Amino acid sequence: MTSRTQKNITFLGIGLALVYWFVDAWIQSLISEESITFINSLLNPETERLWLRGFVVLLFLIFTAYAEHLLNIIDKMTKELKQYHEKLEYTVSELQMEATERKAAIKELEMLAVTDPLTTLINRRKFNELLSYEIERNQRYRADLSLIMCDIDHFKKINDSYGHDVGDSALKIFSEEIKKNIREVDIFARWGGEEFMILMPNAKITDANSKAEKLRKVIESINLKMVDSFTASFGVTNFTNGDTIESFIKRADDALYQAKDKGRNTVAAVAI
Questions:
Q1: With 50 as the cut, is the pLDDT of residue 42 above it?
Q2: Of the residues 80, 110, 140, which one is the last residue of a structural domain?
């Protein structure tokens, strides 16, 4: 209860007390011996009713005035409550919007944590997670699983001769062309620098080898401005029983080095 409401109630109590005091004094004067005779001569049945009605009207007017004042207070409190409710709704709406924006920001941060910013491919960290899942799946269902490791030939020379902008452009074009020529189920990631990984679930090593040869030709056919030669080398292997993540990747890396030893722009496979 507000101090203003308490004040109004206090005024109402004082008013009623004054009315009581007035009525009491009036009654005391009426019952004095000096007044009894005079009152008896004045009060007949009709005049007595008239006085009673006047007294009732007086009390009604007093209570009506305070009731109206009380209704004004209630109306003001209702408006204030409505304003408070509207303000509360606005605050809740703002909090919901802020929560939605925060959720979107967290989702974006999570995406950035597993995505390579230049090529928009998944990064090494995410690739390792997916690789671990596919290996477990392979061991459970004895499904085929192959891995292609590839990198852009003489990439350092491209950066040194033509600048990092051209090098970045080469990485983007390479990523886009590979992505367009692999299956939707294949997992394509930037492993680091100019090295990339293509994990192929349910694919034999012969299938992976054929895919790598196709990709080699696609990259070789790209006409990259300012760059004389734009090629890539590919190493292919398959997952076998008893392999670990490390041994699987190591064998693909060995195959890639064999392709480079053969003169680059070629495909080499290491199978067990």
A1: no
A2: 110
